[in-house]
Amino acid sequence: MIAPPRRAGRRLPGDPGRPLTASVPAGAVGRVLFSTLLVAWFALPLLPLAMWAFADRWSYPAIAPTSFGLEGVRTALASGGLSAFGSSLTLGLVVAVIATAIGALAARALVAGWAPFPKTLTVLLFAPIAIPPFALVMGTNVLLLRAHAPAFLGVVLVLVAVAVPYTTFVLRTAYAAHDIGFEEAARALGASRRQVLLRVHLPLIAPALARAAFLAFLVGWSDYVVTLIVGGGQFVTLPMITASLASGIGNDSVVALLSLIATIPPLILVVLLARTGRRRTT
Questions:
Q1: Which of 2, 53, 83, 158 could link 256 by a cystine bridge, Cβ 3.0 to 4.6 Å?
Q2: Same domain as 263, residue 150
Q3: Could you report the per-residue pLDDT of 41-67, keeping only the tens digit for each?
Q4: Alpha-helix residue ranges (DSSP H) falling in 3-112
């Protein structure tokens, strides 16, 4: 039996291969170009930091370092950069977990109508955004000092209050579009409340939880003012040690290295969020 002739640029039903003459859609080219420009936009400012981080000497008018080395790495380690990185990571993760949980509860209560005095509660939740950060920190610090709260606990409490408006906003939008019918159907089929929560509710709301946790992590990871004032120097984070070294002279390579390291966790989280979102849409 003679097979029907193929037309150029078209694929016959059941043919798994892609014809050589098939053209790439213009939209795909545009997306690739836009993604490349976006990556370049964010990566180009990091290039001077990467050069400074490993430059032992970079004198004017040279456009590139005249001597490379690991002096900046040794100075950063000697200045407590590794422990400060761990403190910032711990602070960011703790703030993310607590603020995301509070934001989820508040958002669910506001959307479902469970919260008493919803307008008043909304104002209170979003008040930390309206109040100047310095005034918020100074006023809260007095209360924490009188209560003899530990430095880390005080920093976490203030940063959670700062992060909750962001997590509540993200999750309130998600819960407004959430279809509770899936949970009701699972309950009707005999699932327990715990099974509904773990197997229905959380998987459906997981992308919004990830976005909210990312924002809360950034609040804790990048904070300087709250940690400095409320922590009182007892809890040293990466932004604090970077600012301290930046105020001196001759620490350019160390400051560049610490600044470059500070971008790594947020970039990793952004990549994970993007990959997770892509898997859910495909």
A1: 53
A2: no
A3: 877 877 888 887 888 777 777 777 777
A4: 26-43, 46-53, 71-78, 81-112
